[in-house]
Amino acid sequence: MSRISIIMAFVVVVYAASALGSPQQKDTNTTDGESLNTTPRNRSKINGTVTNKKRRREEQYLCRNGPSYGKCRASFIEWFYIGGRCTSYTGCVSGGFKDPDTCETVCVKSQKRTRRPRPRPKETTKTRRTAE
């Protein structure tokens, strides 16, 4: 066999394995009759809340920070929210959005949520003292 045939056979095997996926195993030794693959209702709510807070924090970080350049030989396009709009950067950048639509929806929503009204200036009342 030539090297090309061996490589092609390997690619076919890897593709077939990924297409089939791994079967999920169920554990029947649980005490309450549920599988270990299922989560209780209250646990999923707790994890969902933590996930939402973490995701919101990551979105705010992505919207506030610019591109982070690295060393590589590839060229990637990522979108960053800079100066009130989404801008594309090409190269070995990381920490941005994959498409402009996601950048716009996340960062515009984030900017609206984080803006706070400006405090009103304190009213100063000048009192004049009269000579007695």
From TrEMBL:
Protein name (database record): Pancreatic trypsin inhibitor
Taxonomic lineage: Eukaryota, Metazoa, Ecdysozoa, Arthropoda, Chelicerata
Start and end residues of each stretch annotated as Disordered: 23-57, 109-132
Keyword Membrane appears in the UniProt entry: no
Signal peptide residue numbers: 1-16
Polar residues: bias regions: 23-51
Keywords, in A-Z order: Signal
Comp. bias regions, Basic and acidic residues: 120-132
Basic residues bias (residue ranges): 110-119
GO molecular function: serine-type endopeptidase inhibitor activity
